[in-house]
Amino acid sequence: MSFWAVTFLEYWKRKMATLAHHWDCMDFQEEEERPRPEFAAMAPSIEYNPVTGVKEPYFPERARLSRMLTGSMVIIIMLCVVMIFLVSVIMYRGIVSVMMYRTGSFVLRNIANISSSMVNLALILLMGQVYTALALQLTKWEMHRTQTQYEDAFTFKVFVFQFVNFYSSPFYVAFFKGRFVGYPGHYGTLLGMRNEECGPGGCLIELAEQLFIIMVGKQLISNVQEFVIPYVKAWQQKRALNKVRGTQNSQEPRRWEEDYQLVECEGLFEEYLEIVLQFGFITIFVAAFPLAPLFALLNNWAEVRLDAHKFVCEYRRPVAERAQNIGVWFNILEALSHLSVIVNAFLIAFTSDFLPRLLYQYKFDNDLNGYVNFTLAYAPPSYTSHPMCRYKAFRDNNGNYTLIYWELLAVRLGFIIAFEHVVFIVLRAIDWMVPDVPESLGLKVKRERYLAKQALADNQEALLVSHRGTLTHTHCKPPLAPPPPLSCCIIDLPKKQCKVICLL
C-alpha cells in the first residue's frame, strides 16, 4: 500500500501537469491573483503592490501573524476538547465492559467495543461540523489577501482537526491500549479506573473493528447526506421563491429561472476532505484492516454516481476559477503517504504478533509448539496463592521484565529501522523513475515556447524594418529628456502628432 500510495501520487503529478497545460494554467502564479472581495472591503489601508506597481488594499503582515497565532491557540484548545472526548469514550467503554463481563456472555462483552465505536463516530461527526464552522470564521478573521491563501489556510486548519478527530481513537487502540496495564498487584489506573487491556487475541482485532465502524459508518452517513441534503435544500429554496413570487407569474418558467431555483454550489472542499480522510484510512492502518481499500473502492463507485447527479441535477453550475494544481491538498496526501510507512512499521512491530512469533521460531521451535505458554507470565506470589495465575507479559515472578522482553524490544526497533529505510529507498526510486511531466507534454511545452520566441523575434524584426523605413523620411529631433538605456527619438508625424520609437 505504501508503494501504491507513492506511485499514485507520482502519476497524479503527471495528470495535474496535463490538466494545467490543457487549461493554460501552467504559468499561473499567486502574484497574478487579485485580492479577495472580502479582503478588499475590510482592509484598513491602500498601498502599492511591489509586484504589479498598482495600488490595492493592504493589511499589515505583523497583524496577520498575530491573528494566526491567536487562531492557533484556539485550534489547540479544540484539539484538547477532542482528547477529553476520547478519554470519555475510554471511560464509557470501561464501565460498559465491567457491566457486560458480569453477565458471563461472550457476545455481550463485545457490545462494549462496538457501542463505544459508534459513540465515538457520533462525537466525531458532531465535532467535525462544529470545528468546520469555527475554522471558517478564524480564517476570515486572519485576512488572507488572495483566494489561494485563504483556501490553503482554511484547508490546513480543518484537516489538522479532522486528522486528530478521526484518527485519535485508532491511534489509541493501536499504540496505547494495553501498554500501561501494569501487572497483578500493581495495576495502572486512569482517574481511579484500572487501565484497559487488550483482548486475548490482542488489540489488532479491536483496531480492525473500530476502523470498520468509523470508516464504513462515515462513508454511509456521507452518502446518505449527499443524497438527501440537496433535495431538502432544493425543496426549501423552491418554497421560499414561490412565497416571494406568489401568483404574479403563472406562465411556465423559463430555463434560466429553473436553473436559478437550484441549490447554490458550495464548492469542492467537502469532497476533497472526504477523499483525503479515506486515503489516510486505507494507507495508515492497512496492516490492521486490509479490507479498507475494498470498502473504499465500493464507496467511490457509488460516490461518483451520487456526485454526478448532485452537480448536474441539483446544484447550479459552479463558477470556474483558475488554479495550477490542487494546492495544499497534494502536500497533505504526500505527508499521509510518508506517515503511513512509519505507522505500519510500528503496527507490525508492536501491535501484531508477527515479531514475537518470528523470535520464538528462531530461538525455540520452528513449529510454534508452546508459543502461548512463552507469551504468558506467572503472577507474583504476594498477589495470589494460586500457582497457575497467568497473564500476558514477558515478566518474571516478581513483575520485572525478563531478558526475552529486551531481546524482543531490540528486534522490534531493528525491524522498524530496516522496514522504514527499505520502503523509503524504494519510494525514492519510484519518484526518480516516474517523471513529473509526461514526455509528450514536455516536448509540446518546449515546442510552444520555441514557436512563441520565434514569433516574437519575427515580429520585432518586422517592426525594426518598418521603423527604419519611417526614419529615412522623417526629421528626428533631439530627445526631450536624457535618453534611457534604449535608443529613442521623437518623430514628427502628420497633423503634428508625436510618436516615440524605441530601437532595440
TrEMBL record:
The UniProt record lists the Anoctamin transmembrane domain at 1-448
Keywords associated with the record: Membrane, Transmembrane, Transmembrane helix
What are the annotated GO cellular component locations? plasma membrane
Q: Which domain of life is it from?
A: Eukaryota
Q: Where are the transmembrane segments?
A: 68-91, 111-134, 154-175, 275-298, 326-350, 403-427
Q: How does it sit in the membrane?
A: Multi-pass membrane protein
Per the record, the major location class is membrane
Please list the GO terms describing molecular function: chloride channel activity
Localization (cell):
Membrane
Q: Which Pfam families match?
A: Anoctamin
Q: Which PANTHER family match?
A: ANOCTAMIN
Q: Which family does it belong to?
A: Belongs to the anoctamin family.
Q: Tell me the protein's name.
A: Anoctamin
Q: What is the lineage of its organism?
A: Eukaryota, Metazoa, Chordata, Craniata, Vertebrata
